[in-house]
# Entry
Amino acid sequence: MDDCIFCKIISGDVPCYKIYEDEYVLAFLDINPVVNGHTLVIPKKHFVNIFDVDNFYLEKVTAAIKKISVHYNQKFDGINILNANDKSAQQSVFHLHFHIIPRTIDDGKDFWPYKEVLDKTDLKTMAERLKL
Ligand code: 5GP
Ligand code: ZN
# Structure
């Protein structure tokens, strides 16, 4: 896609610090890292997000995430994997991407949202509403 920054990174029109690449997937450092090693993993074909990606590319991206995660786990103390889909979920670049956020034991970060305690009777209603 012409006006997509990640498509420009894939084509080489915009530079990046590459971490991993294969025929279907590219991983590179986030330009605005929230921790050292903050990495983005993207399909080399333009999909907006999880809602339109096809399973073939999603599987390739997932396999790359696993490979990179295992590699990073030897250099850090764990990782978070984050992914935003649509504006309400704070997606800002509309080319599917997964954030790999390396963690260290004493980094003092908190990437887990505040857990508001809800009435547990809501769980039954919610399960009925959401069941596939
Ligand atoms: P989102 O907010 O959509 O989940 O994440 C988009 C991410 O892309 C942000 O963390 C942002 O820093 C990163 N980003 C945006 N533009 C560029 C760019 O040109 N190069 C790189 N390497 N990362 C980018
Ligand atoms: Zn794109």
Q: What stands out?
A: Residues 5, 14, 16, 28-32, 40, 84, 90-93 surround guanosine-5'-monophosphate (ligand 1) (CB under 6 Å). The chain is about 25% helix and 15% strand. The two ends are 33 Å apart (CA to CA).
